[in-house]
Amino acid sequence: MRSGMLAVDGAELYYEVRGSGPELLLIPGAGGDGGFYQGLAEDLSDAFTVITYDRRGNSRSTGRTEEMMTLTQQASDAKALINELADGKSLVFGNSGGAIIALTLAAQYPEVIRGLIAHEPPAVKVLPETDEWFNFFEKVIARSEEAGAQVAAGEFVQTMRGESDAPWPEDVQQRFFGNVEFLFSKEFADFGRFVPDFDALKAAKFPILLGAGSTDRGAYYARPSLEIAKRVGAPWAEFPGIHMEFLHRPAGFGAALRALATEMQSRIADVPERWTTEG
Question: Which molecular-function annotations from GO does this UniProt entry contain (predicted)?
Fold first, then answer.
């Protein structure tokens, strides 16, 4: 593994690169910490050049300001990483808020994406306005202002099935709780307003796949993936486990992601020689 800092407009992004082969960028969700993907990145590094990073203003990256964070800025940061570390084009995987960023990246900068896998984007604004979760992000922001970010963060995690029962690595947990004030005060609003650019996604020249975990059937953060897939004409797949299954059981989740990413790569480019020779 090699790590570094990439200077972008107004920030430096901490990144890690593992393995070799086709590039695969993993975009983290709420909390913005690339450490969520450490086990998954190691598992996939025998077949892919796996790029992880801390999003702007989070954990080991800089760029925390008083300005509200926009998805356009988040997408621009992801594009800069692809240009610098993947020679301008990459497979992209995003989970949760990272999937929202990935979908924004796909709509605004399609030229840098080789294929996109969006896992459980919590795009609640694609649900009916009468749905009980339609204003969920606004309620979390209000709760953070009322009771504090740490309380809101604990309650937020409780809304995701199984996550509160599964331990996080200590360093990741510490960094996450150091990010929650920034998350709820600066990032959450744009996540909560997100509606995909359906026309841009339908017109994409690269493969797109939406997915959600088997444990999350019917959950507010899983149902939008089905609606988005239907509206852009993309396939949908069920992954194993809970919302951040890759954090707790990276090998099992990685097996599913490996199959999907390999299939995407084989459709759009020659299979790398290292995949065809005896190891």
Answer: triacylglycerol lipase activity
Kindly state the DSSP code that residue 165 receives in the 8-state scheme. Answer: G
pTM of the entire predicted model? 0.96
> Distance (Å, rounded) from C-alpha 108 to C-alpha 112?
10
Residues recorded for the chain: 279
pLDDT surpasses 80 at 270? no
Sheet with 11-18, side-by-side order of all strands: 2-8, 11-18, 49-53, 23-27, 90-95, 113-119, 208-213, 236-239
Question: Residues with Cβ < 8 Å from 220, sequence gap 6 or more?
Answer: 122, 124, 127, 131, 133, 136, 159
Question: For 6-51, what is each residue's pLDDT tens digit?
Answer: 999 999 999 999 999 999 999 999 999 999 999 999 999 999 999 9
Domain ranges of the chain: 2-273
How distant is the alpha carbon of residue 28 from its chain centre? 4
